[in-house]
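Table 4 source record.
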Amino acid sequence: MTKPMTSIRLDTHLADEAARILGVKSRTEAVHVALREIVALKKFRNLMEEHAGKLTFEGLE
């Protein structure tokens, strides 16, 4: 699927570090992975708040 291109100002050192940490080859891929992670984290937090007291997450202990 073709995605439209956009232009953003990017801290290249931070993007390169993120790419290294995430194990990806490009800054673009690092940004995509990071955005997916943020969206997933927000959905997870919303789910936990919605079911507060009914669900537990033992991964933090």
